[in-house]
């Protein structure tokens, strides 16, 4: 195995809601829509969402309730002002606000929002 991430898949029980969020709210263009699996156009790492029940026949582990924040997607912004503007835009389009933009001790301006399944994600910019 090579230590490299090639694909990120978010498992969901509501593919339509998640597809609309990542397409309409975050702006990812749909590359492949198979109904229960949707892959988005993305430079670098492939990015997809998939119905959790697709994997039920392969492993009972997918039936277990998930808990806690297992991952975070972080989206870069041009500058700190772009973090503020992008956050307002995301919230107005239906993202759930987790924390408003603020300067962090590691020299980034960040804001957190959640997708329809409650996964928390970040937008950020370096503070220069």
TrEMBL record:
The record's section on InterPro entries has: Glyas_Bleomycin-R_OHBP_Dase, Glyoxalase-like_dom, VOC_core
- One Pfam match, given by its short name, reads Glyoxalase_2
Q: Give the source's domain of life in one word.
A: Bacteria
Annotated VOC domain ranges read 4-126
Q: Which PROSITE patterns match?
A: VOC
Q: Which PANTHER family match?
A: BLR0126 PROTEIN, BLR2520 PROTEIN
> What is the name attached to this protein's record?
VOC family protein
């Amino acid at each position: 195995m090579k230590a490299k991430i090639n694909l990120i898949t978010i498992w969901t029980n509501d593919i339509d809601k998640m597809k609309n969020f990542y397409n309409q709210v975050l702006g990812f263009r749909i590359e492949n829509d198979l109904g229960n699996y949707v892959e988005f156009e993305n430079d670098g790492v492939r990015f997809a969402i998939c119905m959790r029940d697709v994997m039920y026949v392969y492993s009972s582990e997918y039936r277990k309730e998930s808990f806690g924040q297992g991952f975070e997607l972080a989206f870069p912004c041009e500058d700190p002002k772009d973090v503020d503007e992008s956050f307002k835009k995301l919230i107005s389009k239906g993202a759930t606000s987790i924390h408003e933009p603020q300067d962090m001790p590691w020299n980034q301006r960040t804001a957190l929002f959640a997708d329809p399944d409650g996964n928390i994600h970040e937008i950020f910019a370096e503070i220069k």
